[in-house]
Amino acid sequence: MRTRPGRTALAGAAALALVLAGCGLKSGSPMVDDVVPGSVGQGQPLDGASLTVTSKNFSESIILGQMIGLIFKAAGAEVLDRTNLPSSISAREAIIQGDADAEYEYTGTGWITYLGHAKPITDPLAQWKAVRDADRKNGVTWLRPSTLNNTYALAISKKNNATYHLKTLSDVAALSKKNPSAVTVCVENEFASRDDGLPGMEKAYGMSLPAANIRKMDAGIIYTQVSKSNSCLLGEVFTTDGRIKAMNLDVLADNKHFFPNYNAAPVIHTPTFDKYPVIADLLDPLSARLTTEVAQVLNARVDVDGDDPHDVAKDWLIAEGFIKEG
């Protein structure tokens, strides 16, 4: 089961940081793919470099980490693959300590979870700039963000939405006032209690759902329940999840911009970036192509079809022309 980016509990983080700082990360394997430059990496500017890529342990993060590694490999670097670490904090500490050189991180995660700000910034670019500037002191360099936004949302099956015609969360609020019994919601335990989850959303949109209308369950079950049963009209989803399209769900627009922005952007261990500033030229074009819709398709290949994240990343990079088979 994937974990939500930015929602990882910070309990024990300090102890983990000491462990990582003391002994470093020992797992990982070399990337052995025979790939060459396509639209990026011409002239192999990373020839002679030895770089380590990392990620968290859910499909999207692993896919994005594999993309970085494959682009570095095509650009001439020797690459050690340390993706699929057990938590957000372990991947974060790997970057800070220099045990890893690069990963994709989420702006909301950086701002709220790592830097400790309670209030997100509504404008996505302003949120990224604030994180970029604040994280410099930690030895972390944020490159340009993608529009890929892995944030919270509510979704409804297309079948049920043929009856209700919901497009936004304001539409949900209106329906909850008109027909309170109709608005049943399936959510995770954490989302049901967090200020930046269901309680905060209800307050922001002026709705008050009866406790009997809120059903708590595991994240993976929510998608199935919304799609195939009548136990809940709406369900908590993550906007880049591949099951949204696979299960014919409509995502409702957060028209009041309540949920934080979780735009994916490469983060680089600053001494590594200082040594190889060309990394920005390699990864900026990649981020420019990554969208929420692209992520849904790629995530579905892993979470719905069962494909390997490395193969998914490599196939897409080749199809987009970023790299070529050697």
Rg over alpha carbons:
20 Å
Distance between the termini: 34 Å
Q: How large is the share of residues in beta strands?
A: 15-25%
Task: For the largest sheet, list the strands in their spatial order.
Answer: 9-8-10-7-11
Q: Which geometry do the CA atoms define?
A: elongated
Please give the number of β-strands: 13
Residue share in helices?
40-55%
How would you name the oligomeric state of the polypeptide chains in this document?
single chain
Specify the number of helices.
Answer: 15
Biggest sheet architecture: 5 strands, mixed
SSE pattern: HEEEHEHEHHEEHHEHHEHEHEEHHHHE
Low-confidence stretches: 1-25
What is the average per-residue confidence, as pLDDT, rounded to a whole number? Answer: 92
Structural class: alpha/beta
